[in-house]
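Recall that a protein's primary structure is simply its ordered list of amino acids. Everything else, from secondary elements to tertiary packing, is in principle encoded there. The following example makes that idea concrete.
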Amino acid sequence: MFAALKKKWLALGAALIVLIAAGGVACWQRTPLLAWYAVRGLAAADESQRPRWVEKVRRLDRAAWPRLVECLCQSDERCVANAAAALASISKPWPADDARWTELGSLLTDRFAHMTVLGQEAALRLECDWLRAERGGAAARDGAGRLLRAAVRVAEKSVRARALELAVLLPAQAGQPELLNVERELARQHLRDGETANRVCAVQLAMLPGVDLKKEIVPLLEDGAPEVRRAAMLAIGHLYGDQQPEVIATEDLLRWLHDTDDDVRRICEAALRGRGLQDEHLRIGRLVTDTRATVRLQVLDSIRSNPDLEPGIWLRTLTHDPAPEVRIAAVRAAAEYGTVDLSDRIDQMARSDPSPTVCQLARYYLNYPKSRTNRMLQP
């Protein structure tokens, strides 16, 4: 009887040990189990259910990160969107100097290559949102830089478009040559992108300090999309002077005063005013760049009637006019205008103008007697 009682107590003791051990394991695994349960519920939640599950996941903080990032590796759009919403909610209260910015940024970068296209787009959007809201300070910017370097290795167009957006929000510093090279290459590629929005974004990126692709923006002033022409004009139209090197000459900007888009014309006019042109200059600028030769010839009347204008600039411009009759009129006026010396240009025209008639008249006016100055220009 004593032996049986002993066995009974031993069995009870063993059971108690098992229960205690099980309880310890359950307590130790409680948070991972809760994370598994909460993220599983979140992944399947519809839009109306999402806030409740996001709140459950938010309370778990770090414990939920790995499973949320794994959701970004799924192809289900709802799962990806819900996980991104939870990551945004978790990070919302973090101060800029919180170490979690670095930890989460590293996790996103480490798993980026394993994410689906949807997940990669979501990760890049998260980084963009953090930068726009100026969240996370230097740690968030460092994380965004690492993610950007991972993203440019992806061939998918939609991912590269998000990478381009992130690059615009992430000006590289002088001490980040690798990041600068990434941003410069992104800009070059997308200045020729087939998507209008990407070309606009590439213009903005090309203007960032260190990227500095201003001259490569100039061809986009001819872009078929007005949004792109506006961005290009905003970017380079104001660049003029010692502090801001000119990438397009003032006289070359004038023809955008005739652009078919109201905003491009407005931005162009503002840029020209910023370069010192006044109302009368702009009026003549519109004349000299008009598509009709008869209108361009009216510049000569404006010069005659306005002694305050500098005639040499406008006459030199007219000597490059596509219409031979305009070039001839400009050469004749320059030769008869005593204060204007266009001998270098007239000599060039005498030797190489495509029109034999213009060549002949240029040779004549090259030796035009200065004593007859202004006779033909009197009103």
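The radius of gyration is 35 Å. The CA atoms of residues 74 and 366 lie 77 Å apart.
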